[in-house]
Amino acid sequence: MKHYMILSALLLTLTLSASAQNRDLYIYMDGKPDVQAYENVFPLAPTDNPNRYVVDSLKIVRHLKEPTGLRIELDADGLPTVIWKPVNGAKNYEVYRSVNHSPYVIAKGAIVQNWQTNEYYFTDTDPQPGTSSYRVRARGIVIESLLSSEIVSNYIDPSAIQTIDGTYIVTEYEYDEFSSELNESAKYQMSVELDPNDPTTATIRNFWNMRSDIEAIYDEEDQALYIPSQTAIGSHSTYGTIYIRGVNSDATAYTNYITLRFSPLGGKLEEEGYFSAYVNAGRFGYYQIKAVKDNGNGTTGNAAPRKSRRQLTLKPEALKVDKNRKADCKTMITNPVRRLQ
Q1: DSSP-based three-state secondary structure for 209
Q2: Per-residue DSSP letters for 276-297?
Q3: Burial of 6 (0-12, 13-18, 19+ CB in 10 A)
Q4: Cα dist. 12→6, 22, 59, 153 in Å?
Q5: What is the pLDDT of residues 212-249, one digit of tens each?
Q6: Which among 19, 6, 3, 15 has a CA at the least distance from the CA of 52?
Q7: Which of 254, 197, 204 is nearest to 226 (CA)?
Q8: Which of 46, 174, 211, 243 could form a disulfide with 20 if both were Cys (CB 3.0 to 4.6 A apart)?
């Protein structure tokens, strides 16, 4: 392949010493192959003259180098800030944003220069939840750069961050031991209240829709509630006291605790594994709950329906207690908090 340095800004025909075949014209700034023009590849078509080629149009535009060294930091308000190094010859810059893989558009926000580091800063004042990708273009008086490589930020709206205490809408599922499927069995409200004098202790109200209070251990580091097995949750009119105990995720053995894992983003509380509800005469079944914070917004608010499709039929004992299984909560092993018996 031959390279040619074109000096004119407009060229309609070009004479080449070659046989008649399709060729590409490559254009470089200052005749240097490593410095390309803005549009540098143009197809050439042969003519009736085997030594003459034509190009429909020719556009030669010198461009600035694209910004480099992009990184993202959060400002004091938690807003994503894009930072990059200055470009020689640039008079200003444009920042483009793509939200959740949508097309790039110019982002809103001011661009300022840090005179100590000589870097430029752009704070996105209208961040959107999810994944945002940013690219920067340098602009001169009459020329501009290509877009920079992209940098990605995952923004979480602070209003979506919840604390564990509050009211939840619970969806309960019963485990089918024959099909290994979960079927929705009940929906109700449940609340979690941390002890103001002991942040490692929580009161759960209306667990399993039994309208009673039970005590649990809260591990802030793990973001989880641990309910000890053999905790009494209510009373049955025929069979007496109802107890619960943890069941592992394979439904093959009982565990020491029922674990409810909390997700601050969106305020979700989900059980790891299952729990068994039982009385002295036998058990009712294996259940799993998934809950989301009820913020009283009128959609899933305080008017949430209380429904139940439970078939409270006693079943024979099926599992063995895994005596070698360690406690689900590491705080139960190291004992930094009070154990519940």
Answers
A1: helix
A2: EEEETTEEEEEEEEEEEE---S
A3: middle
A4: 12, 16, 11, 47
A5: 999 999 999 999 999 999 999 999 888 899 999 999 98
A6: 15
A7: 204
A8: 46
